[in-house]
Amino acid sequence: MTRSSFNRTERYSGVAIGLHWLLALLILGVFGVGFYMADLPFSMTRLKLFNWHKWAGMTILALSVLRLLWRATHRPPADLPAPKWQLTVAHLTHWLMYALFFAVPLVGWAYSSAAGFPIVWFGMLQLPDFVPKDKALAEMIEPWHGALAWALIVLAGLHIAAALKHQFIDRDGLINRMRPGRG
Predict the structure, then answer these.
(1) Quick one: DSSP state of residue 3?
(2) How many CB atoms lie within 10 A of CB 78?
């Protein structure tokens, strides 16, 4: 199929496309910052990056709620013809990524709360503690945040690889359904 063969109903809505790409950029950015800052020595730069990381995580959580609500109230385009196993893997990957869109920031919030470091969203709105301050709990939670973040990045990599396969090997126009701009 060519790009021109898709009509409006075969593409995702503009809101779904916008949320998809905004979340993709934020998730890749927050992962990169998280990876970079984890081994920095204590400094003002590290503190600033931790705060930015928390703000971005809470923004990802809020946008994920919006995205899930949008998805629940707006039917996506029908699947393109594909073997059943590919459709199963695609749907499973999407739903696992949705789960991780929530799990990663919620576990990070729990870790921050348990460690006694409040989240002040954009330096203006202090969020309530997600769990009580508890050093032992913080130590238990911390590795889960990183492990879940890595799982999300691996799934995102699979998602990107599948999209590229559709674009360059299958040439079925799948990417056009989520491409920004007019269909």
Answers:
(1) G
(2) 8
**Which residues have C-beta within 8 Å of that of residue 57, sequence separation ≥ 6?**
30, 104, 105, 108, 109
Residue with tokens 């990381």: 53
**Amino acid occupying residue 182:** R
Token pair for 12: 């995702």
pLDDT tens sequence across 5-44: 444 448 999 999 999 999 999 999 999 999 999 999 999 9
What does the alpha-carbon distance between residue 18 and residue 67 come to, in Å, rounded to a whole number? Answer: 10
**Residues 129, 117: Cα–Cα separation, whole Å:** 9
Strand partners, 125: 121
pTM (two decimals): 0.90
- How far apart are alpha carbons 132 and 91 in whole angstroms? 36
